[in-house]
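REQUEST FORM: STRUCTURE PREDICTION
Request ID: SP-0412
Submitted by: Lab K.M.
Chain count: 1
Length (residues): 168
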Amino acid sequence: MPTRRSRFATSLASTLAFLTLLTAGCDRGSHPGRIGSPAPQFTVSDDTNTADLSKLRGKIVVLNLWATWCVPCIEEVPSLLEMQRKLPQVTVVAISMDEDATLYHRFLTQNHVDLLTVRDPTQRINAMYGTAQIPETYIIDRQGILRRKFVSAQNWTSPEILEYLTHL
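STATUS: Completed
RESULT:
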């Protein structure tokens, strides 16, 4: 008959094995396997704007994947706007997965969003980058190389992020 101590050890080992498997399959950190590789190129257009990543070569790009119905996405919009004002050498490209064009445009107008933002209801860009949950943001350097991935809402005006982007 197993002792209390051996049952605890078995339970602990099982829990640790489960957690290891769970985290091993999770590629949502700031350093996924694609970091250091060329960013997937895309051109996406909606009824108002076009974003062509190849035309932004030579610039630092903050590629933000978002939607108007995503609360964390909405929470980070003000800091993205402020970061863009503070760092004009950085280009924010916001790709929305909104399906409803009217609601999308209303949100942009009501919130004075003056970033380059394009609606991609097919989620083609999300699929290209392997985005499963928004918001996700990718930092692309002047040579078109993926340098960093941010998962969930960020404070884009934090000293650490501003310094990182300034020195990229």
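NOTES: Confidence is low (pLDDT under 50) at residues 8-31.
Reviewed by: T.R.
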